[in-house]
Write a structure and sequence with these properties.
Blueprint: H1 2-15, H2 19-33, E1 37-43, H3 49-57, E2 73-78, E3 88-93, E4 98-101, E5 123-130, E6 139-143, H4 152-164, E7 165-172, H5 178-189, E8 193-198, H6 211-224, E9 232-234, H7 247-259, H8 261-295, H9 299-359, H10 365-399, H11 419-451, H12 456-480, H13 495-503, H14 505-512, H15 523-531, H16 539-549, H17 555-560, H18 574-584, H19 593-626, H20 632-642, H21 647-698, H22 700-730, H23 734-755
Helix pairs in contact: 1-2, 1-8, 1-23, 3-7, 8-23, 9-10, 9-21, 9-22, 10-18, 10-21, 10-22, 11-16, 12-13, 12-16, 15-22, 18-21, 19-20, 19-21
């Protein structure tokens, strides 16, 4: 039955002109045929997904903490002794290479330190093989990134995990937020088997709130998402908490799944397919209505419907434009508020740091460096919070529903509540673009190597094909951005021209395409990303798309050499600015006590010498006054001796005062050094904070506009697709209408049989 439904749904989606659904169905069918049951742990980061999995397996396996600790998909499956994969892990890298590691090394994968050999950005996914009875029949656990880490790679990983999943365990540390509600509702509407787990129940303070009432409120929220009480669990990952014992109920649920994988796989896959079938029936009914009107020659009705679709598109464009105008007006006011808040905050923060430096017990350069690094990072982290607290309200307006007189298609992206998250997703896209551009450079070099030992004609044709792919993508880019496409003409078929074409392969994307403004991201790429239009495209073509997307920001990379791994927009992180300010703090006042000591020691010696001479002179004068000299020669001798310091006596006095001199010199040197250091630190920090503020705010309008566009790209795409499909229907030849109508009716009736 399931195979028949797969075949039917492919036929239906072909009829509806929805190729993205056909690709999704093929991927789902491939997973179904493997008879593997994936249980995906999905939810907000820091909700304790990894901690929960560790507790369920009763072993400390996955890294756990208060920060995002699962930046890649992790598959936990039954050990494969046949292939020597018993109780181990396999790292799968993006270049196709894999590496076997021990379970003890798993926790080190996400650590960022010099002694860790793996770069998380190069890892595609992780497989862990365990000797666990509940996994024996084909159940596989998936640990995923948080749904609120709005980073392109994480969104793609989440999409991949949903594609695999039969069962979703949605993990949250607190009461369900709107993001959680939207996600869970979407999962249920798509036919997923969903359970909800609240993990931080130990943080509910019975002294401040009624625990039963809190749980009851959560259950009412979840009920609106489509969950029943038996689907919801309230626990704590902390073994010392009374809520910890309820983890046993979740473990029991997994045991039951593991014992009946085949039946549950059949049920859950059918549920997802039936959900898709119901959606297809709705779309087919629309097609049927159009065909009936076409068959009745109700052209006026058809034209009115077409105009309604066009009016939707126009209304959306106008609403977006109006919202953008309102945002633009608010931006200047926002910048002024940010400037005021930052200057007030930074002045007080720097004054506190300066006071700490002056009054600290620091007594050497390394300790001082450690102190100012700590102060610097605290200021920068707090500063970004201050800045974003002023900008975040701008996102609330963007996240609001567009005011139009029709129901918008569901927005696929969750709301981003913090401007720093907007910055993160956009900057991570740029980093990915740089890597892809390097990949193009590598492919170019390999093609150059082939010229000497391969058929030039074949190489030429290959490169021309690649160039044509890039040109095609450029044209799509121009269409999306309302620019007239520029064509590239190949004028020379000679070997020399072939070499020129190879050499210009990368430059093609960078030089030929009109340069967009800073932060501009190709709409085409967003359509692919948020709709899952996973068309089979060559890697070079994808790289071409990415290069077109990032031409402006990557000009620096091109000028410096493509091999240089430069991040163009990472100045918007506290980590980067900490490093930048650290470089500015590269020549601080040095603590040089020894030099000061020698100077002060010499001063003390000179003072002692003068004191000794003064004493000797006084003794001589008293002897003269008392006339104690027997003759003139004796007086002259005494006078001469009174003008010469006794070096032995001087050295003796110096030794007596040595410790006091050293202590006094050190105290004065430290005091002056701290004062100079604090003054210098305050000056540099003020300069760098001013620069940070300028850099952080200069792209604010573009970033906010890009965020708004990203949220509406899917809506615009669906409306345009609706218009395109509608035009195809009304342009069908009259002789084909009856046959098409009969086919649609048959598909509707057949689908309804499966949906009963």
């Amino acid at each position: 039955m399931i195979d028949e439904l797969f075949t039917l749904l492919k036929e239906v989606n072909t009829e509806l002109n929805l190729p993205q659904n056909i690709i999704k169905l093929e991927q789902m069918q491939e997973i179904y045929n493997k008879k593997e049951y994936f249980v995906a742990f999905i939810g907000q980061f820091s909700a304790g997904k990894s901690y929960l999995i560790n507790n369920l397996l009763e072993r400390k396996l996955l890294p756990q903490g208060i920060t995002e600790t699962t930046p890649l998909l992790t598959y936990i499956r039954y050990n494969d002794e046949l292939n020597d994969l018993s109780e181990c892990a396999i790292l799968h890298f993006q270049d196709g290479i894999s590496e076997k590691i021990s379970l003890e090394e798993v926790a080190n994968i996400i650590q960022k330190s010099d002694n860790i050999k793996w770069n998380i950005e190069n890892i595609d996914y992780l497989e862990i093989y365990l000797q666990e009875e509940i996994l024996k029949n084909g159940m596989i656990l998936l640990d995923t990134p948080g749904v609120n880490t709005i980073i392109e790679r994480h969104e793609q990983l989440l999409d991949n995990s949903l594609l695999l999943s039969s069962k979703i365990i949605y993990v949250d540390g607190h009461s369900p937020s709107q993001v959680d509600v939207d996600k869970i509702t979407m999962f249920k509407q798509q036919g997923f088997n969903v359970s909800f787990i609240r993990t931080h129940c130990d943080e509910i303070k019975s002294s401040e709130e009624n625990v039963e009432q809190v749980i009851d409120t959560d259950l009412k929220i979840l009920e609106k998402c489509g969950l029943v009480k038996s689907d919801c669990y309230f626990i704590s990952n902390m073994s010392s908490s009374e809520w910890f014992t309820d983890i046993a109920k979740i473990r029991e649920m997994l045991v039951n799944i593991g014992e009946d994988v085949a039946t549950l796989l059949e049920q859950d896959m059918k549920s997802q397919l039936v959900s898709m079938a119901n959606n297809c029936i709705i779309e087919l009914e629309k097609v049927k209505q159009v065909l009936e009107e076409k068959n009745n020659n109700d052209m006026l009705v058809l034209e009115n419907k077409k105009r309604k679709i066009e009016n939707k598109i126009q209304a959306l464009e106008e609403a977006v434009k109006m919202r953008q105008e309102k945002i633009d007006k608010k931006i200047d006011e926002c910048k002024q508020n940010v400037d005021i808040e930052v200057r007030v905050f930074s002045q007080k923060a720097i004054e506190r740091s300066v006071s700490k430096i002056i009054n600290s017990n620091v007594s050497d350069d390394n300790s001082m460096l450690s102190l100012i690094n700590k102060e610097k990072q605290q200021i920068l982290q707090s500063l970004l919070v201050v800045i974003n607290s002023q900008i975040d309200p701008m996102l609330i307006k963007i996240n609001e529903n567009i005011n139009v007189n029709f129901d918008l298609p569901t927005v696929d992206l969750p709301n981003i509540e913090h401007y720093q998250d907007v910055v993160n997703i956009q900057d991570n896209e740029i980093k990915d673009l740089q890597e892809k551009l390097i990949e193009i450079k590598s492919k170019k070099d390999k093609l150059i190597e082939k010229i000497g030992n391969a058929d030039n004609e074949a190489i030429k044709n290959q490169i021309i094909a690649l160039e044509n792919e890039l040109i095609a993508q450029k044209q799509l880019y121009d269409i999306e951005n309302n620019r007239p496409p520029k064509m590239i003409e190949v004028r020379d078929d000679s070997t020399g021209e072939l070499g020129r074409q190879i050499g210009g392969l990368v430059d093609l994307a960078l030089l030929v395409v009109p340069l967009p403004g800073p932060g501009k991201v190709t709409t085409l790429m967003k359509v692919k990303k948020f709709f899952g239009i996973a068309q089979e495209v060559s890697k070079v073509q994808k790289a071409g798309q990415i290069a077109l997307k990032a031409v402006n920001v990557l000009k620096t990379v091109k000028n410096k050499g493509i091999e240089e791994n430069v991040s163009c927009l990472d100045y918007l992180t506290a980590e980067h600015w900490g490093k930048k300010i650290g470089e500015s703090l590269g020549a601080p006042p040095r603590l040089v006590i020894d030099k000061n000591y020698e100077e002060q020691r010499q001063v003390q010696i000179n003072n002692l010498r003068e004191q000794i001479l003064a004493k000797q002179r006084k003794v001589y004068e008293m002897k003269c006054k008392m006339d104690t000299f027997r003759n003139e020669d004796e007086r002259k001798k005494a006078e001469k001796e009174s003008l010469i310091v006794n070096e032995q006596q001087l050295e003796k006095e110096i030794k007596i005062r040595e410790q006091q001199i050293r202590k006094s010199v050190r105290e004065n040197a430290l005091k002056n050094w701290k004062k100079d250091y604090a003054e210098w630190y305050g000056r540099v920090m003020r300069e760098q904070i001013n620069q940070l503020l300028e850099d952080y705010l200069k792209d604010l309008p573009v970033r906010l506009k890009e965020y708004q566009n990203s949220r509406l790209t899917s809506v615009q795409y669906r409306l345009n697709q609706e218009k395109e499909n509608y035009e195809q229907l009304i342009n069908i030849a009259p002789s084909e209408v009856s046959e098409r109508l009969e086919k649609v009716n048959n598909l509707i009736n057949t689908l309804k049989l499966y949906c009963v």
